[in-house]
Design goal:
With 364 residues, this protein is an alpha/beta fold. 37% of the residues lie in helices and 22% in strands.
């Protein structure tokens, strides 16, 4: 992951209600979310969010309905105003932007892909794809070439003259992605972009996004409630519960070392063999010892693929390769242990004890 931070969120709070600043004082004094609702009729939507999102990487923010994930992404482009905190984009505090500067950021720096496509029904696919340029005042001949290029890139070549109602849901979402790419914005905000799609189409769209990301290296914030999707897409994973960050980090690390009972429960049904990568469990190369190597595995291979290579033999050892060079060893006995779900750390259990009860959900 690059060291360059594109978006930095610091000490972010959002309280919904008639007097959020007064309610915020109560939160600072220790009021719980439940107390804030029961006694003061305010909803604690986001509480002390601190997240860095790195340039050219995919940050996935996930959680169940009401966790605050959609509320959070709408703070990045100030569709929602925070109650307190800071939002920095490429070194600038977004909260200090004038209305004109904010509009400029939304037009040039950020594009957004919505859950329900948000295509204009009276405009053609080509015109929807070039919408950002049209809003900027550009004429159709000026953006048509780029729009057609990205339509072709997302598998919609020849569809520019169609209208949204003539396309399937998956095709409409491809138009949404092409529109975001045609805008040439370096940051893409994707709010549950694939959740309205059928499972097979959803998988295709995930694969398409990863393929495009390998080529374009956009800074992407992706909202999801689906753990399988999050683990597939994320370079950095942020898990929310009731408006708080429960755990964040590299997805493999979270899966192997959950720090909270909520996370343990969340990942309990995951097929670990299909999700965990060889790089996450490999050991250092031992140049001073004679070992019988059974074969080679790529660092990005899943554990499931190594199990297939081993034929079920728990005594085998595989050399791990990355970019054509040996980088470690994977022992089948370590692999088998990695398939056993991990309990939360004691520190995580203590931290979560006060917030494991049922609480009212904020707007998502």
């Amino acid at each position: 992951m690059t060291d360059q931070v594109s978006i930095s969120i610091r000490n972010l709070y959002k309280i919904f209600g008639s007097n959020p600043q007064e309610a915020l004082k109560r939160v600072y004094d220790g009021a719980s979310k439940k107390e804030l609702m029961d006694k003061h009729r305010h909803v604690l939507g986001l509480s002390d969010i601190n997240v860095d999102m790195h340039a050219g990487k995919i940050t996935v923010i996930m959680g169940l309905s009401g966790s605050g994930k959609s509320t959070l992404i709408r703070h990045v482009n100030r569709l929602i105003e925070p109650t307190a905190g800071e939002i920095w984009v490429d070194g600038e505090n977004v909260l200090e932007f004038s209305e004109e500067r904010l509009r400029e950021m939304r037009r040039l720096t950020m594009s957004m892909v919505f859950q329900h496509f948000a295509l204009l029904p009276h405009r053609s696919v080509l015109e929807n794809t070039g919408l950002a340029q049209s809003v900027r005042g550009e004429k159709k001949p000026n953006y048509e070439k780029d729009a057609l290029k990205w339509l072709d890139r997302v598998g919609l070549g020849g569809q520019g003259g169609q209208y949204p109602h003539q396309l399937s849901g998956g095709m409409q979402q491809r138009v949404g992605i092409a529109r975001a790419l045609t805008s040439n914005a370096p940051i893409m905000l994707m709010d549950e972009a694939f959740s309205a799609l059928d499972p097979l189409i959803r998988t295709d769209m995930q694969d398409l996004l990863l393929e495009l990301q390998d080529e374009l290296h956009k800074t992407i914030i992706f909202i999801s409630h689906d753990l399988d999707e999050a683990l597939k897409l994320a370079d950095h994973l942020v898990i929310l519960k009731d408006g708080r960050v429960v755990q964040q980090g590299e997805p493999q690390e979270i899966l192997l070392r959950p720090n909270d009972p909520y996370i343990v429960d969340f990942i309990s049904d995951i097929n670990r063999a299909r999700v965990l990568r060889v790089r996450s469990i490999m050991k250092a190369l031992k140049t001073d010892a004679q070992q019988s190597i059974s074969g080679e595995a790529d660092a990005e291979d899943t554990l499931e693929s190594v199990i297939a290579l081993s034929g079920g033999d728990a005594d085998q050892i595989f050399r791990v390769m990355a970019n054509g060079k040996p980088v470690g060893l994977v022992y089948m006995r370590d692999l088998v242990r990695a398939l056993v779900p991990t309990s939360a750390s004691a520190g995580g259990i203590r931290r979560s004890a006060a917030r494991m009860g049922a609480e009212p959900s904020p707007p998502n």
